[in-house]
Design a protein that fits this description.
homodimer; 491 residues; alpha/beta; seven-stranded mixed β-sheet; five-stranded parallel β-sheet; disordered C terminus
């Protein structure tokens, strides 16, 4: 892998990629989805072998991956994401004549996506970051995750072939492998944006590299989240399936999900035995790789050794003779005071099937706890009963201030790919508070360009009067009245 | 000025500010505009004394400042900037049931604006950054520019009083003075975004401070631009007012504008004498302050001492007995090869009334020159004649790739405040490629929050079914067909 060749190919593809018409680009995205689907029975066994994730889970993930490629195809054709704004020239403004100004969002150029280990399809080579960057009109380089190299190569070959067959420009899609290549590309001036899903340590390091470039670029990192869940006293009494739902969410995919609920706030006195019982019924699950397995063992040991921690389910973490790691859920309980006192030991994300139940005294303390202990998360959840809206309002406000998504009931895992999804949040949930799931993810790879007094034939299609792409055009400024004015004077 | 008190007040105001209804917030913005207007005759003389800018220019700037406050009032009431998306629950998706998900953009929290020296109204205390942040629903702290301290204090007092009278929360608007306070606030965890307009050196330093915080924040800096203008051979022959227009744009406000055309590309053989003549007719103009004056003198000396530079107008740069700096326009000419060879001496922005005329041989070389020499600019301009659209297309593409705004005819100074304006561009024009002028500037201070299965009474108003604020709501995902699916499974 020669960084220079890869970066040069991506840079050469930038102009041609941006020029591909929406229907052609949409067709290419659908072609990638179709290619993935037809290769699913070949790819999924590789994914199982390399990640230890289950066939069921990977089949669902594959469908999500293909579904979001098709969703972005529809976004591309719809064109609302281009935010086309047309302000006609107007000589009648009170302050002075105004030129014709039209603004559209255009692709930023080559995008570098660092793949995640825990979603070998949906957050990897052909995942949401690639789909949204391709949809935006950007060439994509994926830095493969070392946890599933064979799958990454097989997927990349398939994606690249489908794009070529769909007449996308050479260099539209490339794979890079190895840390050196990743950092080398991240510092290459031709790369214009980067995405990352992974650990706080690695993400922070890469974000700082991106910020220190001679020409810095946006680095969209998703670095960690513990996704607290709050159960009101009424809900604790009324809901019969809390323990089962919680343990399912904590232990699915061995807890190796960015939206795993790491903390469950339960009123003091609520029965916790059932949680332990459900946890003990969960069978052993392989961990993604040695790095994750060893990291989980260390975090779990720290939590278990913290004074004031009560064990609800001891769980296990072990390495077999082949070097693979396995785990069953570990669930502990603490009171809020212990959590405050031992925040260093307890608050960091534990990537794996471990969760902390926190006993609280009064509903009124929860908003403050959320703000104090969980300033940046992907998701926050409240289980309440009808009639409690007034009492939980401060907690909801605290969650909205500190999380990308606020759930009422249910569990934070199982992120829907829809136009309204937000998968981001204040740092460290995200380095830049954008979303990496749902159609708004495309905005990460767009920048505004205004055209002033341009002749029709030199305007990009979304800004032309005849609107050949049929995109939504917002005509006229928000304020055309004489209540405000615009200037074309000497400043 | 106690940083702790200021940051605490801003943080306390964040929730109440976000909760102010659109009509109330719009009324407050209009009240600030009215207060500025009624104080104009008192403020403008202070501005003249502190900045050396002319009365005419400052009157126009005052009208723009008030106009953009009113424009943002209309944006707030319109509500399109909230990008409200409502995806109804749907059990009929091919892959599985989907929850109700609704997403809206919410204010990021306290914003710190570093004021500029060159627009004491429009990019200072009550300028576009403050207007757009207040419109977004964020408390604002302005770090005063030391170039106009008395004006900053007078304006801030007036703005704060108008906001209080309009019932905005305590702490909505504050002024901070001094570099130590600015850096102290920039590193304070309660500040959630910052803006800056100024030099590459200072902006880069502050951007790195923002990126190195324990919790990094977006730093929207506008750090410099040279705004090249390209004249085709036909336009050079056809346009009779090129020299006058160019010199007006270069010398207005003593060239101390971010959109001043620093480079003018003219075909070899075109007459340049008239440019020199116009330049020599411009009367001396005071520079903003000693820092700018001394910096201009140094840059001018470097340019004049560069081998291969021909002087079209020598101009002047001098300091009087009171320490004030004055200048008349300096215009030089080079050929493209000299520009390439001496890029270190010639390419940096020269903040003041200096411009470089570049002689080129063929229209076909211009796109390459733009990409090679000017990778990040606020504006790029082309003067061409009808019928040249085909020939200039590569240059237009190069300008769109490297500038925030592409002009056809005219001059880059005189930025209209409209919904379609883009005042940003690739680095170093902007640290993050957003716009600081026009209504899209509001998006810098917003972040997405999704609500999943929320009861109506706990949804923010823009997401409610009864839509009490009457904002545009985008209902249903882009893809509701069975061509794609969404997941609420185990991942």
């Amino acid at each position: 892998m020669d960084i220079e060749t890869v970066a040069a190919a991506a840079a050469s593809a930038a102009g041609p990629c941006a020029a591909v018409s929406p229907p052609e680009r949409a067709t290419a995205l659908v072609a990638v989805a179709a290619a993935l689907e037809s290769a699913a029975s070949r790819l999924i066994p590789i994914a199982i072998a390399e990640t230890g994730l289950s066939k069921d889970r990977l089949e669902v993930e594959m469908r999500r991956t293909c579904g979001q490629l098709r969703l972005f195809a529809e976004v591309v054709v719809d064109g609302a994401h281009l935010d086309a704004r047309l302000d006609a020239a107007d000589g009648a403004y009170v302050i002075g004549a105004r030129p014709d100004v039209r603004r559209v969002l255009v692709p930023v150029g080559p995008v570098l996506n660092f793949a995640a280990s825990n979603f070998p399809f949906a957050f990897s080579v052909a995942g949401g970051d690639s789909a949204s960057a391709l949809a935006a009109g950007c060439p994509v380089i994926v830095k493969a995750h070392p946890g599933h190299p064979e799958l990454s190569r097989a997927t990349a070959e398939l994606v690249a072939r489908a794009l070529v067959a769909a007449d996308m420009p050479d260099g539209t899609f490339q794979l890079a492998e190895g840390e050196e290549a990743g950092v080398g590309l991240l510092t290459d001036d031709r790369i214009r944006a980067a995405t990352f899903t992974g650990s706080l340590r690695a993400g922070r390091m890469l974000a700082e590299i991106a910020a220190a470039r001679p020409r810095p670029i946006p680095f969209f990192g998703e670095l960690g989240s513990v996704n607290p869940v709050y159960i009101t006293p009424s809900a604790a009494r009324a809901e019969t399936d809390l323990a089962a739902g919680f343990i399912d969410s904590v232990s699915g995919s061995a807890g190796q999900l960015c939206t795993k609920p790491g903390f469950l706030f339960m009123p003091r006195g609520a029965e916790l035995d059932e949680i332990g019982e459900h946890a003990r019924r969960v069978t052993e699950h392989r961990m993604l790789n040695g790095h994750v397995g060893a990291g989980y063992m260390a975090r779990r040991s720290t939590v278990l050794a913290t004074p004031g921690v009560t064990v609800l389910a001891q769980g296990s973490s072990r390495q077999d003779a082949d070097g693979e790691w396995y785990a069953t859920p570990t669930i502990v309980a603490v009171d809020a005071e212990t959590l405050r006192k031992h925040r260093r030991e307890l608050l960091d994300e534990c990537f794996g099937p471990l969760a902390v139940v926190v006993r609280y005294d009064a509903l009124t303390e929860l908003a403050g706890l959320q703000r104090e202990l969980f300033p940046g998360n992907l998701a926050g959840t409240v289980h309440a009963t009808r009639g409690e809206s007034g009492e939980i309002q401060p907690l909801i406000a605290a969650l909205a201030d500190t999380c990308g998504r606020v759930l009422f009931g249910g569990w934070p895992t199982g992120v829907s790919v829809t136009s309204a999804m937000q998968h981001g949040g204040p740092f460290p949930a995200a380095t830049i508070d954008a979303t990496s799931v749902g159609t708004a993810a495309i905005t990460r790879f767009l920048r505004g360009v205004a055209y002033q007094n341009a002749p029709q034939e030199l305007l990009p299609p979304p800004l032309r009067d005849d609107n050949p792409w049929g995109v939504p055009q917002r005509r006229g400024p928000v304020g055309t009245s004489s209540r405000w004015g615009t200037l074309t004077g000497s400043i």
